[in-house]
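Suppose a colleague, Dr. K., hands you the sequence of a protein chain of 293 amino acids and asks what its three-dimensional shape might be. Before reaching for any lab equipment, you can write down a predicted structure in token form. Begin with the sequence itself:
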Amino acid sequence: MPELPEVETVRRGLQPVMEGAKILVAEARRPDLRFPFQPDFVARLKGQVVTGLGRRAKYLMADLASGDVLLMHLGMSGSFRVIKPDNEAAPGEFHYPRAKDSTHDHVLFRMSSGADIIFNDPRRFGYMKVIARSALDEEPLLRGLGPEPLGNEFDAAMLARSCAGKTTSLKAALLDQRVVAGLGNIYVCEALHRSHLSPRRIAATLSTKKGETTDHAKRLVGAIHTVLNDAIKAGGSSLRDHRQTSGELGYFQHSFKVYDREGEKCSTPRCGGTVKRFTQNGRSTFWCPKCQK
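The predicted structure, expressed as tokens, is then:
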């Protein structure tokens, strides 16, 4: 599933053809994706100007002039294709070829910018929903999401407070969207390695018994910021079905330190350890037992 850097890459690819443009035509070519489309889904989109295109965690959010918001999630295999009179591009080109079978083109937006935006999703785990902006705080899909890891409010003290008293593993805590929104398996593995913290470490150790923030929390937040910013700059990671708008591949997978590198030597200078993999909470965890404590 695409994680925060991949979704942000897609947002930046769609922004030039969506923001400030009117939705001239909206088509839902089947009754549902992961969830059924609302009965008035098309009617609430047609003729609306997209005043802004943002992101919350792994969701794309298009603000409409009507006061509604179009919420979009890529799911496991969802991708967007932008068709202009002079070329075709895909917001988010990542490693494995994106499905090009038009039978999986489930949603189309024809924009006044001259672009057709097509959402293709072979596995149909993606979804779209139109929500009144005034009702976003009560939306079940968004309610309870933690802070954005690249937002100003997310710092070591906040993370330490969120993990205080948690007896779960540090990796499980970071994957909890209520603790921090948008992090997934890949970037949690990478951030833990860069901060030299074990994925098995108890989450509560990010603060002292007196509630003070530890150096562990400070290192971890710094690593999260670095790995996410580096991944966004690289266009995301080329994994499974995710692709950039420009049609280019994301390249951050070449910068992985531990993810999918089982059996390779640890890249930490003077470590000499070997990257291992184990299953944790049903997910593959990659780490170096020698330098991650």
